[in-house]
Write a structure and sequence with these properties.
The complex is a heterodimer. By secondary structure, chain A is of the alpha+beta class. Chain A is 35% helix and 15% strand. Chain A has a five-stranded mixed sheet, with helices on both faces. In chain A, a hairpin with a 2-residue loop joins β3 and β4. Chain B has 17 helices and 30 strands. In chain B, β25 and β26 form a beta hairpin. Chain B starts with a strand and ends with a helix. The chains are: A alpha+beta, B alpha+beta.
C-alpha cells in the first residue's frame, strides 16, 4: 500500500492508503477530520467539498494519489477560531437545520467568495447550485453568502 | 390568557431534586412526558441513575445553568427550543444556559420520539412547570435565609431579590433549595412577560456545525470499531442463495465477510474498503415473491378506485343520494409516486454486543422501540441495552425505522466486534422504507349551483391514512361527505415520510377545490371561506381544525401576497391546509420559462400558536415549503421487477438552489399554546404551485412529479 504525503490545513500528514481511495475517506477515516461529510460519493451533492489549492473540490471523487504536493483545506482548517466571515455569516443567519450539508456549503461559499467578493444574486445561486440541502435551507444559505460577501468587502 | 395559570396537580411524579456532592443542585425530569404518570421517580434520589429521567437541570454554585437534553434532533430545532421553555420559567438569562447532550453511558433513553411535529406541543406545559418549580424552590430557599415570606421575593435573570433590596444569586442558595420538598403549586408566567420564548435564538449546536466538529452518527468512532457495508437483495422479493467473496477478501483492509439472514456484511478497517468489498461480492439471488412494477401498481390502484373494496373512515349524510340527485358532478384523480427520504446523512449505526451488555449509538428517531427490537432479536434483557443518540443528518421519517441498528447489532453479535454499519447513498436509496405511491379520487356533487356532496377515495400501497385525517377540512362543511380507503399489499417496504398522507392528500384536495370553485363560478379563496363558515360552532369533537384560525391565515396570506394584483407574466396559486394542529395558507407566484414553471416566490401565513423560537421556526417553514415544492415538481421513484429505478442524486432529482423560490413567512401572533411546525408547511405547497400553473396555462396538473407531466409545447401553445 503506497504512502502519501498530504498537506492538510497547513500540516503535512503521512497516509498509507490504496491509490484509488477518495480524499474524503482519507480525511474521515485515516485522519479523523470528520467535518467533511459523505453523502452521495459521486460528486453530485457537495457535502464533501474541501479546498484544493484554494479551489472548491469534491473530495469524494478526488483520488488521494492526485493530492500529492497540493494544499488541502478542510472545514476544520478554514479558520483558527471558527471566525471566517462565511462561518460568522452562517452563525448570524442561523442557517443550519439538520446541519449535515453545511460544512460543504461553507467550503463552496468561501472558495467562491475568494474569487468573487462582490457577487450578484444570480452568481450566488449559480455558485451554490452544486450543494444539495435536503432540509432546503436555501433561502438562508443565499442570504448568508450575501452577508459574508458584505463582511469581506 | 389574562391571569397567571395556577397549577393544581402534583409534579412529584415527574420531578426530583438532589444536592450534588460537587456543589449545586440537580433536578431530574422527563423531557418528553414530564407530566405523565408513567414517569416514575427512583426510590432513592441519591441513586439517580438516569433510568427514570432522561433530562436534568444542573444549577451550579456559581449560578451557571446546564440543561442536559436528550436530543432526538433531526433538524427541527428541539434541542434549542425545548430548553428555552425551561429557561424561561426558571428565569435565567439564555446566555447563562448551556445545553448539553444528556449523559449517556448508563442511560436508558425512554419515551422519546421525534415524529408528528409533537415535541413542543406536548412539552409546552410540563417543561415550563419544571423550570417554574425549580425557580420557586430557589425563591423559598432565599426567603428562608432572609426570614421573609417567599411571596415577597422576585427573580430576574438568575438573581433573587426581596422587598428590602437584598439580592442572592441562584448559585448561592442551590444547596438549601435542593433539600426542600418539591412545591405543589407554582405560577407560570404570563406570555406577556416572556423574555426568552419568542426571541430569536441560535441553534445550540451552531458552533460545532460551522467548524466541522463530530456530531452526527457517521462521525462517531470508538476504539476497535470495524466498518461494515451490507449487500442486501437487489430487488424486493428476492432471497440470497449463495455468494463468492474471493474478490472482496482480496481488497486491502477487508477483514471478514459474514452472511446474516438474507444479507452479507463486508467488514473492514475503513469505510472505503468496506464499500469496495461489498461491490466486489458476487451473489446469487432467488425470487421468492414477484418483483413488482410501477406500471402494475398504477393499474392496481386505478382498479381499487373503480372497485368496491373500501373501508369507510367517515360518512356524513348520504353521499350516494347526493350524487344521484346532482345535476353536475366534478371528479378528478390525483396520482403520486413512491418517494425515498434521502436524508443527507445516509443510514448508519454503531453496535457492540457483548455477553453482558449491548451498546448502541447512532441517529434514530425512535430510540425506545429500537432498543426493544434489538433486545428481542438477540433474546436479551432490555436492561442490558444502552442507546446513545447522535445528532441526525435529517430524518423525514426514515429514522423512525431502526433496521440499520438491528443490522449493526446482528453483525456485532455474530462477530463479537464493535460494528459500524454504513449505508452507501445507493444502499440508502434502494433499501428504503418509502412513502407509498398513492392515488386519490375526489368527486363533488353539485345541485342548483350548490355543492351538495364530497366523496374522497384513497388507493394506496400497503397502508392507508389514519387517525384524525378523515376529519380534516372539508369535513364538517359539506352535508354529504365520505372518505373511503383501499390498499394493496406489496412486498416493497413503505412507511412514514414527512407529513404522512397529508403530504399528498393536501395536493389532491387543494387542487380539487381550486377547480371546483371554477365549476361553481365562485372566487377560489371565497369558496374555502364559505365552507369554513359552515364548520363554526360545530359540536363534532372529531373535528380539530378551527375555522376561525383557518380564516385568519387565509386572510393574512391574501393580504401579504397581493393576491390577484401581480404584475404581468406572474401567475398565482392559492392553497391552504391544516395538519399537525397547525393552520397554513400559501400563495405561490410563478413565471413560465421555456414552457416550464419557475416558482419565484411563496408567501406563507401560518398559525402555530406562540412561536417559541422565531429564528428556528422560520427555518422550519421555509424549508417545509421548498421541500414540498421540490418533491411535487421533481420527486420520482419507480420500480421494475422489484428493482428501484433510481439510486443516487444523478438519477434522482432533489431541489437545488437555482430552482428555489424566495419564501416569505408571516406568523399569526397570538398567545395560544404552540402547535406542530416541522411538517405543516410542506403539504399545501404543491397545490399552490399546481394552481399557479393552471392560472398561467389553463392546464390542471394532477400527477406528481409535475416535471414528468408537463408538456412544454402544450404549455407554450396554451
Amino acid at each position: 500500500m503506497p504512502t502519501y504525503k498530504l498537506k492538510i490545513n497547513g500540516t503535512y500528514h503521512s497516509v498509507d492508503a490504496d491509490s484509488d481511495t477518495p480524499l474524503l475517506w482519507v480525511l474521515r477515516d485515516h485522519l479523523n477530520l470528520v467535518g467533511t461529510k459523505y453523502s452521495c460519493g459521486i460528486g453530485q451533492c457537495g457535502a464533501c467539498t474541501v479546498h484544493v489549492d484554494g479551489k472548491a473540490t469534491k473530495s469524494c471523487v478526488s483520488n488521494v494519489a492526485l493530492m500529492d504536493g497540493k494544499s488541502i483545506t478542510t472545514i476544520e482548517g478554514l479558520s483558527e477560531n471558527g471566525d471566517h466571515p462565511v462561518q460568522e455569516a452562517w452563525k448570524e443567519i442561523d442557517v443550519p437545520q439538520c446541519g449535515y450539508c453545511q460544512s460543504g456549503q461553507i467550503m463552496t461559499a468561501s472558495a467562491f467568495l475568494n474569487e468573487n467578493a462582490n457577487p450578484s444574486k444570480s452568481e450566488i445561486r449559480d455558485a451554490m447550485n452544486g450543494n444539495i440541502c435536503r432540509c432546503a435551507s436555501y433561502n438562508s444559505i443565499e442570504k448568508a453568502v450575501k452577508v459574508a460577501a458584505d463582511k469581506l468587502s | 390568557m389574562n391571569s397567571k395559570n395556577k397549577l393544581a396537580f402534583s409534579r412529584r411524579s415527574f420531578l426530583k431534586t438532589s444536592a450534588l456532592a460537587s456543589g449545586g443542585m440537580l433536578i431530574g425530569f422527563n423531557l418528553f412526558t414530564a407530566c405523565k404518570p408513567e414517569a416514575k421517580p427512583p426510590v432513592d434520589i441519591s441513586q439517580l441513575d438516569f433510568n427514570d429521567f432522561n433530562a436534568f437541570i444542573r444549577i451550579a454554585n456559581n449560578g451557571q445553568v446546564t440543561i442536559f437534553a436528550p436530543n432526538p434532533e433531526i433538524g427541527q430545532g428541539v434541542k434549542t427550543s425545548m430548553p428555552m421553555l425551561i429557561a424561561e420559567e426558571l428565569d435565567v438569562a439564555w446566555k447563562d444556559v448551556y445545553v448539553a447532550q444528556g449523559v449517556l453511558d448508563n442511560q436508558h433513553y425512554t419515551r422519546q420520539v421525534a415524529g408528528g411535529s409533537q415535541s413542543l406541543r406536548q412539552g409546552w406545559e410540563p417543561l415550563r412547570q419544571t423550570g417554574a418549580t425549580a425557580r420557586q424552590m430557589l425563591i423559598m430557599a432565599a426567603a428562608a435565609r432572609w426570614g421573609v415570606d417567599a411571596s415577597e421575593c422576585t427573580t430576574k435573570e438568575g438573581v433573587i431579590s426581596n422587598a428590602k433590596g437584598d439580592k442572592l444569586g441562584y448559585g448561592d442558595v442551590v444547596v438549601e433549595a435542593a433539600a426542600l420538598e418539591v412545591p405543589e403549586n407554582v405560577e407560570l408566567k404570563n406570555p406577556k412577560d416572556f423574555n426568552i420564548i419568542g426571541k430569536n435564538t441560535s441553534n445550540v449546536d451552531i458552533d460545532h456545525i460551522i467548524t466541522g466538529k463530530p456530531l452526527f452518527g457517521l462521525d462517531y468512532k470508538k476504539e476497535g470499531m470495524v466498518y461494515a457495508s451490507v449487500l442486501r437483495p437487489p430487488a424486493f422479493g428476492q432471497e440470497l442463495v449463495d455468494f463468492d467473496d474471493t474478490n472482496a477478501k482480496a481488497i486491502a483492509g477487508v477483514s471478514q465477510v459474514v452472511r446474516f439472514g438474507n444479507k452479507i456484511a463486508v467488514l473492514a478497517t475503513n469505510t472505503w474498503a468496506a464499500l469496495k468489498g461489498k461491490n466486489a461480492l458476487k451473489a446469487n439471488w432467488a425470487t421468492t415473491s414477484k418483483g413488482e412494477n410501477t406500471e402494475d401498481h398504477h393499474k392496481i390502484m386505478l382498479d381499487l378506485l373503480d372497485g368496491t373494496s373500501f373501508e369507510t373512515l367517515r360518512a356524513d349524510g348520504n353521499v350516494k343520494k347526493a350524487f344521484q340527485e346532482a345535476d353536475k358532478v366534478l371528479e378528478r384523480t390525483y396520482e403520486s409516486p413512491f418517494l425515498p427520504h434521502n436524508c443527507m446523512e445516509p443510514m448508519n449505526f454503531y453496535a457492540h454486543v457483548t455477553t453482558d451488555k449491548i451498546e448502541l449509538v447512532g441517529p434514530i428517531q425512535t430510540p425506545e422501540s429500537t432498543a426493544k427490537q434489538v433486545a428481542e432479536m438477540l433474546n436479551r434483557d432490555i436492561n442490558q441495552v444502552s442507546l446513545e443518540m447522535t445528532r441526525m443528518g435529517g430524518g423525514f421519517g426514515r429514522r423512525l425505522y431502526g433496521d440499520f441498528a438491528l443490522e449493526a447489532a446482528e453483525i456485532s453479535s455474530l462477530t463479537n466486534l464493535p460494528i459500524k454499519v454504513v449505508f452507501s447513498r445507493e444502499d440508502d436509496m434502494t433499501d428504503g422504507i418509502y412513502r407509498p405511491a398513492i392515488k386519490y379520487r375526489i368527486a363533488a356533487s353539485i345541485k342548483d349551483g350548490k355543492l351538495t356532496g364530497y366523496h374522497l377515495k384513497e388507493a394506496s400501497i400497503n397502508s392507508n391514512m389514519y387517525g384524525l385525517i378523515p376529519n380534516f377540512f372539508p369535513a364538517g362543511s359539506i352535508e354529504n361527505y365520505q372518505v373511503d380507503v383501499a390498499k394493496y399489499d406489496s412486498n416493497i417496504t413503505t412507511g412514514a415520510w414527512r407529513a404522512p398522507y397529508t403530504n399528498f392528500l393536501a395536493f389532491a384536495e387543494q387542487s380539487f377545490f381550486d377547480e371546483l370553485a371554477d365549476v361553481l363560478e365562485v372566487d377560489r379563496v371565497q369558496l374555502r371561506l364559505d365552507l369554513l363558515q359552515k364548520v363554526k360552532g360545530t359540536t363534532d369533537e372529531r373535528i380539530q381544525f378551527s375555522p376561525e384560525r383557518f380564516e385568519d391565515v387565509i386572510n393574512l396570506v391574501v393580504e401579504k401576497s397581493n393576491w390577484g394584483k401581480t404584475k404581468e407574466g406572474v401567475y398565482q396559486g392559492f392553497s391552504s391546509y391544516y395538519c399537525h394542529n397547525t393552520h397554513v395558507a400559501e400563495v405561490a407566484d410563478i413565471e413560465m420559462k421555456n414552457g416550464l414553471p419557475v416558482v419565484k416566490k411563496v408567501t406563507c401565513a401560518i398559525d402555530c400558536g406562540i412561536v417559541v423560537n422565531p429564528l428556528g421556526a422560520l427555518n422550519q417553514v421555509k424549508g417545509g415549503v421548498i421541500d414540498g415544492i421540490g418533491h411535487a415538481m421533481y420527486g420520482d421513484f419507480s420500480f421494475k421487477d422489484g428493482v428501484p429505478q433510481a439510486n443516487n442524486f444523478v438519477n434522482y432529482h432533489l431541489i437545488r438552489m437555482d430552482e428555489t423560490p424566495e419564501v416569505e413567512v408571516h406568523f399569526i401572533q397570538n398567545e395560544l399554546a404552540p402547535t406542530g411546525l416541522g411538517e405543516p408547511a410542506l403539504p399545501p405547497a404543491g397545490a399552490a404551485v399546481a394552481n399557479a400553473i393552471h392560472a398561467a396555462t389553463g392546464m390542471r396538473v394532477t400527477k406528481q412529479p409535475f416535471i414528468n407531466n408537463l408538456n412544454p409545447e402544450q404549455l407554450i401553445n396554451s
